[in-house]
Structure formats: C-alpha cells, structure tokens
C-alpha cells in the first residue's frame, strides 16, 4: 500500500512538473534494521530463541499431508493459489462463534484449518505459519520495506475434542 500510494502521488506531481509531494521520513529502513539488530542480540536474542525452542519442542518437522505425487528430491516453490469467497451469512456466523468464545474470526478460521489438517494427516500436533505485521512503531508506517514476521501457531488436536475446545486452545 505504501509503495502504490507513493508512486501514485509522485506520478501525479511529476506529470504536472511539480516537485515530490512526499514528506521527509523521520526514519529510514536502515534505521529500523539497525534498531532490530540491536534489540535482537545478546541476552535478548537468547531469551527469544529459548522461548521458541521450548514452545516448538517435540513439534513434527513435517506435516504429512497425503500427496498425489512423490515429493521432489529438492524442495521448490511450485504450487498454486485457489481463491474463494465465503458467503456473508456463513462469515457472520463464524465471527459470532469467535465472539461468543472470546476470540476473533481469524481464530475460528485457524482452528478450522488446524482441525482439517489434523484430519487429513492423522497428526494431532499441528503447526501453521502465519505472517504477522512487523510495523510495531508509528515511525515505520510510511516506510517501504519488509516488516513481516512469521509466527508459528501450534495446536494439539485431540481425538474427540470439541471444536469449541480447540478454539479456546487456539485463542490461548
């Protein structure tokens, strides 16, 4: 969004022979990178690594989804995207379920996704990676740069467990 807004503003200004309308930024991406490197080093980094090692201890390395072809010897990024839209009424019911359980629509969809993955794989320990925004400071809102982090969301899907119980676990 930042890139599109800036290119649009610059194009309109330059097409009319005006100078750049963009304000000077208080920080640059290099400033953010340096701050992040300082923040995530030494003892702080060790604490973070120890936390995630404990949280992910014993998690399966691979989600054993049934596949129609053998896995390639060398991993690649070949794949596809399938877009779809949920009907508004279903979306509202899912949102309501999340609200009733003290969660969000995202949590309901994540719990459903983890339940489905568990069913297809037969694995009860399911980890899903989700991109999260890394723009935690107001100064970075106008910067173009890679601010995304991937958060591992792990759930234990138990036999006979209700969906609401799984949702409460996902919420936690």
Automatic annotation (TrEMBL):
SUPFAM superfamilies: CoA-dependent acyltransferases. It comes from the Bacteria. Pfam families: Condensation. GO terms for molecular function: catalytic activity. Coiled coil: none annotated. Residues 1-171 form the Condensation domain. Signal peptide: none annotated. This is Non-ribosomal peptide synthetase.
């Amino acid at each position: 969004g930042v890139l599109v807004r800036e290119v649009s503003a610059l194009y309109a200004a330059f097409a009319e022979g005006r100078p750049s309308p963009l304000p000077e930024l208080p920080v640059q991406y290099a400033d953010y990178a340096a701050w992040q490197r300082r923040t995530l080093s030494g003892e702080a980094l060790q604490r973070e690594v120890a936390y995630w090692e404990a949280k992910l201890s014993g998690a399966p390395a691979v989600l054993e989804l049934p596949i129609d072809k053998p896995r390639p010897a060398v991993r690649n990024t070949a794949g596809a995207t399938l877009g779809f839209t949920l009907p508004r009424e279903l979306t509202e019911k899912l949102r309501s379920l999340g609200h009733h359980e003290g969660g969000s629509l995202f949590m309901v969809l994540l719990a459903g996704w983890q339940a489905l993955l568990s069913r297809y794989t037969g694995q009860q320990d399911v980890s899903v990676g989700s991109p999260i925004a890394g723009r935690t400071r107001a100064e970075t809102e106008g910067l173009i740069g890679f601010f995304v982090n991937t958060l591992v969301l792990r759930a234990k899907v138990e036999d006979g467990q209700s969906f609401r119980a799984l949702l409460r676990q996902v919420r936690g």
